[in-house]
Amino acid sequence: MNKTLEHLQHAFEAPLKSPVLIFALVLFIILLSPILLRPIRIPGIIGLIISGVVIGPHGLNWLEKNSAVDLFSTIGLLYIMFIAGLELDMNEFKKTKHKSIWFGFFTFIIPIAIGFPVCHYILDYGILSSLLIASMFATHTLVSYPIVNSYGISKNEAVAITIGGTILTDTAVLIILAVISGATQGTINQEFWVTLGVSFAVFLFIMFGIIPRIAKWFF
After folding, report:
1. Which spans of this chain does the record mark as coiled coil (predicted)?
2. Which DSSP state fits 64?
């Protein structure tokens, strides 16, 4: 009996180590959070974010940041982006592509233009640190897309513009992160820029040359 209690106590020690318990806790939160927040008209995605903060390393410490949690978060984010792509009206997206470009440009350049001088000259961070922090403010996220979808306005022009702008800003931020990573590791040289340029060209070719043709077979 004592061994059983000790085993249970060890299994439920924070942070949880058992994959079964971690998976069960995540599923419990996914099911319970929307139910609890529905009466007060708070979107379910907000409840999931709050729950993650509460049970995370800086809260109750029931879950630590490990490969399992990273897998859940990555799958969730990719799923949201996948659903957003499926439900995006391509005709509307083509009509608003110029607006998307300008929206993405301004929502990228304004945070960079404000964040970098503040971090570098006022907070006295280094150039790379200031650029990294500023780029964090410049990036977008589609985490709120399920809220938009639940209100039935996913076909709205503003949503198409926002998704297009998100694609542009996230791509630009990823390029900046690659440059910062290379500068930190001391690998910024001619080979680095050639590799980055070729990779970006291949990315553009796949996105605008191959994927649209493949998509026509399915949609």
Report:
1. none
2. -
Model pLDDT for residues 142-187, shown as the tens digit of each residue: 777 777 777 777 777 888 888 888 888 888 888 888 888 888 888 7
CA-CA-CA-CA torsion for 128, 134, 136, 137, nearest 10 degrees? 180
Q: Tell me whether residue 203 is in a domain.
A: no
Alpha-helical segments (H) within 38-156: 44-55, 67-87, 90-95, 97-117, 127-138, 145-150
Helix (H) or strand (E) holding 202: helix 190-205
Cβ atoms of 73 and 51 within 8 Å: the answer is no
Quote the tokens at residue 175. Answer: 């390029």
- Contact assessment for residue 142 and residue 80, using Cβ atoms and an 8 Å cutoff: yes
In a domain, 174, yes or no: no
* 19: containing domain: 1-65
Determine, yes or no, domain membership for 72.
no
DSSP summary character for residue 142: -
219 within domain boundaries: no
Q: Which residues of 154-179 are buried (b: 16+ CB within 10 A; e: fewer)?
A: beeeebbbbbbbbbbbbbbbeebeeb
Read off the pTM: 0.68
Overall domain count for the chain: 1
